[in-house]
Amino acid sequence: MKFGGTSVANLDRIRNVARHVKREVDAGNQVAVVVSAMAGKTNELVDLCRQASRLHDAREYDAIVSSGEQVSAGLLAIVLQEMGVDARSWLGWQIALHTDSSHGAARITEIDGDRLIERLEMKQVAVVAGFQGISPDNRIATLGRGGSDTSAVAVAAAIKADRCDIYTDVDGVYTTDPRIVPKARRLGRISFEEMLEMASLGAKVLQVRSVELAMVHGVRTFVRSSFDDPDAPQVGVDNLPPGTLICDEDEIVEQQVVTGIAFSKDEAQISIRNVPDRPGVAATVFGPLSDANINVDMIVQNISPDGSTTDITFTVPQTDYDRAMKVLEDGRAELKFGVLEGATDVVKVSVIGVGMRSHAGVAAQCFRGLAEKGINIRAITTSEIKISVLIDSAYTELAVRTLHSLYGLDG
Amino acid sequence: MKFGGTSVANLDRIRNVARHVKREVDAGNQVAVVVSAMAGKTNELVDLCRQASRLHDAREYDAIVSSGEQVSAGLLAIVLQEMGVDARSWLGWQIALHTDSSHGAARITEIDGDRLIERLEMKQVAVVAGFQGISPDNRIATLGRGGSDTSAVAVAAAIKADRCDIYTDVDGVYTTDPRIVPKARRLGRISFEEMLEMASLGAKVLQVRSVELAMVHGVRTFVRSSFDDPDAPQVGVDNLPPGTLICDEDEIVEQQVVTGIAFSKDEAQISIRNVPDRPGVAATVFGPLSDANINVDMIVQNISPDGSTTDITFTVPQTDYDRAMKVLEDGRAELKFGVLEGATDVVKVSVIGVGMRSHAGVAAQCFRGLAEKGINIRAITTSEIKISVLIDSAYTELAVRTLHSLYGLDG
Questions:
Q1: Using the beta-carbon criterion (under 8 Å), do A11 and B57 form an inter-chain contact?
Q2: DSSP assignment letter at B261
Q3: Where does B255-411 sit in CATH, by number?
Q4: Which residues make up the binding site for substrate (chains A, B) (predicted)?
Q5: Is B13 near chain A, with CB under 8 Å?
Q6: Higher local confidence (pLDDT), B60 or B359
Q7: ipTM of the complex
Q8: What angle do CA A47, A49, A55 make, to 5 degrees?
Q9: Among residues 103-162 of chain A, which lie with CB inside 8 Å of chain B?
Q10: Chain B residues with CB inside 8 Å of A79's CB?
Q11: Which of A78, B115, B205, B209 could disulfide-link to B52, CB 3.0 to 4.6 Å?
């Protein structure tokens, strides 16, 4: 079970979390709980680091910031004990949850589940401080943004949990953002691959890293609402409470062709026109961007009628747009391009579904549907289970609603 | 170097601490710094534990409360780095500073100084989170009240430091409390034994436990003011900056007969009169008090003229007075005493000095001096290096001033 910062924001909420945990214990389950820091706490600690020095050491930042989860884990353990539930807090170094040396954004390398399993078998709840591990040089290392989701999935994998329940401020994964499409439906189940695409392409319910980890280790991950009554019955459709199970494709009986529509506004488009078309031109364009740590996404290359010049269009994260334009402008002498253009009022809309593998025509249906609404497509990328199109951001709602209806997702 | 909570209360003060540290580093010293939590932080965390449960688990309390020192140690390391001083924070489990299992009031059992020494030799400042260690079951254990002073002395012993400098809100150890006796003088040096008596008998400048530890390990401990200008010259009398060195007797050249006058108002007197005088009567009185964890201090027993009954007078800490009276009242049937009396408006005044060992008449001088002022002595205890008398608290100032003058301590 994983609870985020708003779920442990104060002692009343921590008591509510404890009731959720007690319910599972009373049902005979062995439970590990991963918690974030109390809401606002991490920002407060980050601010202290910034005040101490603008260029603060990442190891010390980690020692400081990780203390937030240390407090919330200890408090939840105390509250559980007061409710008569045996519980013990666990810090990253106590488990131990090993990471690499990338302090501030460390990756988990290995978790030893033995100590936790030993306690779980004694019917003791393990309350694990999220977001933290221990680096090879015996230092606290934090996992970076969304780290607690990742901790939860990693702990679940290490203790071979039947399920990893992520309690969050939404009650599951939807076919698309319900704020844009009121007819959006909550999915009962979604495959790891689809969820990974959904998360990568704009759905914010889970961090991409945690979904990756769940997929690699086959951790069945259940997204559910932290606002649910802790004492409500826990059996509904598929023997699960309300929420969305992220699981292996095999566990999904009635697979739809398209599972969801995602969109991301954090996109910027860059076009370079009339570049002399010679071998290695792409490397000349994208090498410097890569050197500047700018992630290039959708790439479209057209050739001119006479074959002498080419146009290259691609997208970058909106936050990197100015930097990317500068890198390219600096390389103008070498690239010898005619025009450098860009746009930040664009959105990437994606159609996702593992059913595409076995159904032809899904992409054509998408392009036709958008064309019928007069929506111009600036760029396209596809993978085995998704189609992404770049369009003017003014058309976001129209495009998402159109595709949502088109693929029969409306509830 | 050890700095308390008010010295690291905010980032400006932490920067001031860093200047003290940098001065020592610039002078060519290898430095370990022990810090408390930012002022107010520990209370805030203790409050959270209490809100979570009135009967909170000591292990979880320790996990939560120790996070305060974790933050201040990290911040000081960052600030030192910003000043160009290589520094690294150390938590109790990283050193490791081993303790027993008495969570909340753990005692240090062993410190491994090797890891710290290795870094110190690389000219890296070790910033140690005070107040915390690691228990035999791999849990954070806090050292209880005054724990950071104890941490500092223990670290100093482990790294074989030349000196342990305790920066505090007073500028040294005085012959007595300057608020009571304006003529009180700061002592340049005081022996471990004397300091232990001073601390045990009411002087609050250092915790008793830290002095004990300093004495056992021969750690020369220097009490000095945290308000000193960090950039002031560091050489004065005896090649030391202003402050008091607590050291071995041998290091003190001109030893006075009496070094200081301490007093403690946390005393209550209890008298049991007309107890039938039979063998084992003392055990019958003090056994139940000991069982109730009540510390009995000065004990005076008189016999009646006919030898059939006895009067027993003793003191207990004021906070245990009501409990002690109840324990005795409950034992009335067995003890068969006549009258049970008590008083809480009493004070214990103590004359301390290793010179007493070789000078006779110090006690007689004390009794005579008090008698001349009309001060009645309720009880007396003595040791090799101290004389304590119990008197009415109304005479505290008069008694302390009288003795301070009598033994030539006035400045």
A1: no
A2: E
A3: 3.30.2130.10
A4: 42, 69
A5: no
A6: B60
A7: 0.85
A8: 115
A9: 138-140
A10: 52-53
A11: A78
Is the model's pLDDT at B307 over the cut of 80? Answer: no
Class of domain A2-251: alpha beta
B342, two tokens: 């008590």
Q: Are A140 and A195 in contact (CB under 8 A)?
A: no
Residue from A53, A85, A118 whose CB has the most chain B CBs within 10 Å, to mutate? A53
Q: Is B42 annotated as a binding residue?
A: yes
Do β-strands A339-352 and A386-392 pair in parallel, antiparallel, or remain unpaired? antiparallel
Across A317-358, the runs of DSSP E, i.e. the strands, are: 339-352
Please judge whether A94 and B138 are an interchain contact, meaning their C-beta atoms are less than 8 angstroms apart: yes
> For tokens 């009501």, what's the residue?
B322
- The answer to whether the CB atoms of B64 and A51 lie below 8 A apart is no
Tell whether A179 is in a known binding site: yes
Distance (Å, whole) CA B364 – CA B351: 12
Q: For residue B158, give how far its alpha carbon lies from the nearest alpha carbon of chain A (Å).
A: 20
User: Among candidates A334, A340, A331, A336, which has minimal Cα distance to A268?
Assistant: A340
CB contact under 8 A, A71 and B55: no
Q: What class, spelled out in words, does domain B2-252 have in CATH?
A: alpha beta
Question: Which residue of A lies nearest to B72 if distances are taken between CA atoms?
Answer: A64
Residue reference for tokens 């005044």: B349
- Is B259 annotated to bind a ligand? Reply is no
Contact A82 B53 (CB under 8 A): yes
Instruction: Give strand ranges (E) for A243-385.
Output: 244-247, 260-276, 299-303, 309-316, 339-352, 379-383
Which tokens belong to A119? 């306690």
Give me the sign of the Cα torsion angle B149, B145, B216, B254: positive
Matching CATH topology for B2-252 and B255-411? no
Cβ of residue B57 closer than 8 Å to a chain A Cβ? yes
SS3 call for B64: helix
Print pLDDT tens along chain A (411 aa).
Answer: 999 999 999 999 999 999 999 999 999 999 999 999 999 999 999 999 999 999 899 999 999 999 999 999 999 999 999 999 999 999 999 999 999 999 999 999 999 999 999 999 999 999 999 999 999 999 999 998 779 999 999 999 999 999 999 999 899 999 999 999 999 999 999 999 999 999 888 778 898 899 999 999 999 999 999 999 999 888 887 888 999 999 999 999 877 899 999 999 999 999 999 888 888 888 888 999 999 989 998 988 887 777 788 889 999 999 999 999 999 999 888 888 889 999 999 999 999 999 998 888 999 999 999 999 999 999 998 899 999 999 999 999 999 999 999 999 998
What does residue A2 show for φ and ψ, rounded to 5 degrees? -125, 130
Q: Please tell me the distance in Å from B60's CA to the nearest CA on chain A.
A: 5
Whole-number pLDDT of residue A376: 95
Reading the block at residue B220, the tokens are 């020369």
Q: What is the chain B residue with the closest CA to A57?
A: B78
The two three-digit tokens of residue B216, written as one number? 């056992």
Domain boundaries defined on chain B: 2-252, 255-411
As a whole number, mean pLDDT of residues B17-37 equals: 97
CATH superfamily of A260-406: VC0802-like (3.30.2130.10)
Considering the entire predicted model, what is its pTM?
Answer: 0.88
